[in-house]
Amino acid sequence: VQLQASGGGLVQAGGSLRLSCASSGSTFSIEYMGWYRQAPGKQRMWVASISSGGIANYADSVKGRFTISRDNAKNTVYLQMNSLKPEDTAVYYCTASARYWGQGTQVTVSS
Questions:
Q1: pLDDT, tens digit, for every residue of 36-69?
Q2: d(C-alpha 80, C-alpha 30), whole Å
Q3: Which residues touch 73 (CB under 8 Å, ≥6 apart)?
Q4: First vs last Cα of the chain: how many Å apart?
Q5: Residue 11 CB coordination number (10 Å)
Q6: For residue range 12-25, what is the model confidence (pLDDT) as tens digits?
Q7: What burial class does residue 99 get, using C-beta atoms within 10 Å of its C-beta: 0-12 exposed, 13-18 middle, 19+ buried?
Q8: Residues 6 or more apart from 25 whose CB is under 8 A from it?
């Protein structure tokens, strides 16, 4: 399974970004897709995940602001991030069942 993340960038606090993660390869065994993030000097933390059946879960820190979704026809998972805060600044990684990882995309939120 190969994952290609995109959509990061620089945004002001309160703004929005949408991350995309396109997957290819043998995805039939993937139970869920998700996003993690890693801020400088910190551990990689789970942000959100969505099951093959479309059930979404979120970390408390992003609940109500972020929305994860998937387009199975395009083999793509999205993370819509609204009301961004400076503490959301991190490298965001998409993952397939925490077994396969994308290359990461930088999100920077300025105050």
A1: 999 999 999 999 999 988 999 999 999 999 999 9
A2: 21
A3: none
A4: 37
A5: 17
A6: 999 999 999 999 88
A7: exposed
A8: 1, 2
